[in-house]
Specification:
CATH superfamily of the largest domain: Acetylglutamate kinase-like
CATH class of the largest domain: Alpha Beta
Number of domains: 2
Bound molecules: aspartic acid, magnesium ion
Number of helices: 12
Largest sheet: 8 strands, mixed
Structural class: alpha/beta
CATH topology of the largest domain: Carbamate kinase
Oligomer: single chain
Length: 416
C-alpha cells in the first residue's frame, strides 16, 4: 500500500465529464488499496475569468480581496470531485487550504508555505477516506486566505507530499510528460522517461511551463519523488529523479526551454568605475523588477556598456528608470528592445563535457541567427536572440543535439 498525492490541473477538471474521469482514475488507485490525497486546480480559464472580473471592478484591487476571490475557483472543483467519488461509493472529503492548515506568509498573490499540519489529513486517510484539497491557497497566521502564485497548485501538491512523506507526487496535466522541447514547435520532440531534479529546475526557471518553478524547488528541498503525466492518456509519464546516470549514458543535453517574455535594456557609455553596476541596478530592484541576464563590457575609451534583461511587462518602467539613471551618470544613451527571446539548453551531461557551447553557437550561426546575450550555469547555456528567430533556433538546436534520438555525445552523434 502506497500513499500518493495526485494533482490535477485546470484542463483535467475543466467540466463535469473531466471531473468524472478524474474520479474514475482516483477510484481505481483507491480500490487497489492506496491512500490517496488529491489536489485540484480551478477549472481551466476560471482563475483568469475571476481576475478579469476584479479588474472590471477596480483597476488596482486590494491584494487580500483578490486572493479571497481567486481562491474560490479551486473550491468549486474539490467539492465536485468529492461528490463524484461519493457517487462511486468512495468516502471522500474536500478541504480548503485553511482547513488542512496550509500556513503561509502574508504576501498575497505569491505567498510561501511556511508550515503544514498534516494531522487532519492523516486521520482521514486512516479511516480510508480520499482527501481532496484545494490547490493554490493557504492561510496566513491571522486566518486570511492567501494564494501561492499562478500555477501554485503544483506547489500545494508537492508540499503536501513532503508533509505526508508520500511515496510519490503525481502531477496530472494535459501533456503526457516532460519533453525534449515544446512539441508544438518541434514535432520530433521526444518525451523523457526520466529527468534529474536539477535539470527540471533549470528547465522550469528557463520558461518550460510544465511545472511551477517553486514546486520543483520544493521537491528538491524535501526530496519528493515527482512524476508528470497526462490525465487524458495515463501512462508512466516523466519521473523527476534525484539520481544521475553515469556520465557515459547521460545525454549531453536533456532539453531545450524558451521564454518569449524577454526585453533588453542597455545603458551606453557609463564611467568604468566601482559602484556603477549597483547604481544602475538598485533602483530597478527597488521597483521589484526581476533582472535576468547581465552583461558588462568595457570599451577602450574607459567607459562601459551595461546590458540586462527584464520581463516584458516591466519594460516601460525599467526604461523610464534607466533614462533617469543615464542622466545622473552622464551616460551616452539608453538602448531598449522589447522583442527578445531566450533559448536555453539544459543537461547534467554538460558538466563532464566541453564544447557544448560551441555546438550550440555553430547551430545558430548556420541558420544566420545572431546571438545577443549569453549566460551559462553548470548545466545550462542560455542565449538571447531576436524573437522572430525563436522557433528556428529551437528546431536547429534540437537537431544539432540529436534530441529526437536517444543518447548523444558532444558532436551531436549518437554514442556507440
Ligand atoms: N488556478 C490557479 C492558476 O490558474 C492555480 C493552478 O492552476 O495551479 O494559476
Ligand atoms: Mg494550472
Amino acid at each position: 500500500m502506497s500513499l500518493f498525492v495526485e494533482k490535477y490541473g485546470g484542463t483535467s477538471v475543466a467540466d463535469a465529464e473531466r471531473i468524472n474521469a478524474v474520479a474514475d482514475n482516483v477510484a481505481k488507485s483507491h480500490q487497489q488499496g492506496h491512500q490517496m490525497v488529491v489536489v485540484l486546480s480551478a477549472m481551466s480559464g476560471e482563475t483568469n475569468r475571476l481576475l478579469a472580473l476584479a479588474d472590471q471592478i477596480h483597476p488596482d484591487a486590494d491584494a487580500r480581496e483578490v486572493d479571497m476571490l481567486v481562491s474560490t475557483g479551486e473550491q468549486v472543483t474539490i467539492a465536485l470531485l468529492a461528490m463524484a467519488l461519493h457517487h462511486r461509493g468512495i468516502d471522500a472529503r474536500s478541504y480548503t487550504g485553511g482547513q488542512v492548515n496550509i500556513l503561509t506568509d502574508n504576501v498575497y498573490g505569491k505567498a510561501r508555505i511556511v508550515d503544514i499540519d498534516a494531522q487532519r489529513i492523516r486521520t482521514d486517510l486512516e479511516q480510508n477516506r480520499v482527501v481532496v484539497v484545494a490547490g493554490f491557497q493557504g492561510v496566513d497566521n491571522e486566518g486570511n486566505i492567501t494564494t501561492l502564485g499562478r500555477g501554485g497548485s503544483d506547489t500545494t501538491a508537492v508540499a503536501l507530499a513532503a508533509a505526508l512523506s508520500a511515496d510519490e507526487c503525481k502531477i496530472y496535466t494535459d501533456v503526457d510528460g516532460v519533453y525534449t522541447c515544446d512539441p508544438r514547435i518541434e514535432p520530433n520532440a521526444r518525451r523523457l522517461d526520466k529527468i534529474t531534479f536539477e535539470e527540471m529546475l533549470e528547465l522550469a526557471s528557463s520558461g518550460a511551463k510544465v511545472l511551477q518553478t517553486r514546486s520543483v524547488e520544493f521537491a528538491g528541498k524535501y526530496r519528493v519523488p515527482l512524476r508528470v503525466l497526462s490525465s487524458f492518456a495515463p501512462d508512466q509519464g516523466t519521473l523527476i529523479t534525484f539520481e544521475e546516470n553515469s556520465s557515459m549514458e547521460q545525454p549531453l543535453i536533456s532539453g531545450i526551454a524558451y521564454s518569449k517574455d524577454e526585453a533588453k535594456l542597455t545603458i551606453v557609455g557609463v564611467p568604468d568605475e566601482p559602484g556603477v553596476a549597483s547604481k544602475i541596478l538598485e533602483p530597478i530592484s527597488a521597483a521589484h523588477i526581476n533582472i535576468d541576464m547581465i552583461v558588462q563590457n568595457v570599451g577602450d575609451d574607459g567607459t562601459t556598456d551595461f546590458t540586462f534583461t527584464v520581463p516584458r511587462a516591466d519594460f516601460e518602467t525599467s526604461r523610464n528608470i534607466l533614462e533617469s539613471i543615464a542622466k545622473s551618470l552622464l551616460a551616452k544613451e539608453v538602448r531598449a528592445d522589447i522583442n527578445m527571446a531566450k533559448v536555453s539548453v539544459v543537461g547534467v551531461g554538460m558538466r563532464s563535457h566541453a564544447g557544448v557551447a560551441t555546438t550550440m553557437f555553430k547551430a545558430l550561426a548556420q541558420e544566420g541567427i545572431n546571438i545577443i546575450l549569453i549566460s551559462t550555469s553548470e548545466i545550462k547555456i542560455s542565449v538571447v536572440i531576436d524573437d522572430k528567430y525563436l522557433e528556428l533556433a529551437i528546431r536547429s538546436l534540437h537537431k544539432a543535439f540529436q534530441l529526437d534520438e536517444s543518447g548523444n555525445d558532444i558532436t551531436g552523434k549518437k554514442q556507440q
